[in-house]
Amino acid sequence: MLHARNKHAYTRCVLNTAQRDRTLPRTTIALCSEVTLMDSFEFNKIAGAVLAALLLVFGTRTLINEIRHDKPLEQQALVVEIPDEAPAGEPEPAEETVDIATLIPAASVEGGEKLFKRCVACHTNSAGAPHRVGPNLHAVADRDIGSAAGFSYSKALSEKDGTWDVSALDGFLLNPKKWAPGTKMAYAGLKKPNQRADMIKYLQSLK
Q1: Neighbouring residues of 95: CB distance < 8 A, sequence distance ≥ 6
Q2: What pTM, to 2 d.p., does this model score?
Q3: Within a 13 Å sphere around the CA of 188, how many CA atoms are in the beta-carbon half?
Q4: For 37-87, how does the pLDDT look when each residue is reduced to its tens digit (9 = 90+)?
Q5: Could you give the angle at which helices 193-205 and 166-174 cross, rounded to 10 degrees?
Q6: How many separate helices (H) and strands (E) can be counted in the chain?
Q7: What are the residues facing 163 on neighbouring strands?
């Protein structure tokens, strides 16, 4: 068989000669035509194979991109809000100062009773009921601080002067450990003035 490059040269040579000399043998012209057709057929096969390979590569890539295409989320699946914290070393914001006595008249005994449900694990509130972790709070309003009979108070309260008036109750309910440093009271306190007013009015009703 002729080498591809030689086949091209041979074909061009024979065709040119055939055009100039019509007396060439038929076999020579036929051979020329056969070589030309074979060469054209081989070229078409190669070109078709290359085209098919390109279509396969780009088609596969397009299909993969369509399958793996992810639409951007309109919103994150989970949003966690982190409260702002004061930088280390800076003091916490000052507690709101309110004259609690001005809120007592409009306060709610029922609201205070609901709040007192947080306290029942440590305190009783009825006459003659036993002490628990904390003292019985029946008739606590205006009673001497640290004076409930039979209860063992911390030194912070047993040695504190005064009575459980509105101001004392407000200070203790707001921040027990700040108002009476050393107290055994573990409660963090009621930060909202209207809640403290409701609680004080409820305690005043326990008579």
Answers
A1: 174, 175, 191
A2: 0.55
A3: 2
A4: 556 667 777 877 878 777 777 666 665 665 555 555 454 444 444 444 445
A5: 130
A6: 7, 0
A7: 144
Task: For residue 143, give the amino acid letter.
Answer: R
**What residue spans of 106-183 are helical by DSSP H?**
109-116, 155-158, 166-174, 176-179
Q: Which of 128, 131, 125, 163 is nearest to 147 (CA)?
A: 163
Beta strands in 16-160 (DSSP E): none
Q: What is the Cα–Cα distance from 129 to 138, expressed in whole angstroms?
A: 9
- Alpha-carbon span 61 to 42, nearest angstrom: 29
Q: What is the phi/psi pair of residue 144, to 5°?
A: -60, 140
Residue 62 in tokens: 């397009």
Residue ranges of E strands in the chain: none
- Write out the two tokens for 108: 């709610």
pLDDT tens for each residue of 88-137: 555 554 556 789 999 999 999 999 999 999 999 999 999 999 999 999 99
Spatial contact of 177 and 90, defined as CB atoms under 8 Å apart = no
The identity of residue 141, as a single letter, is: A
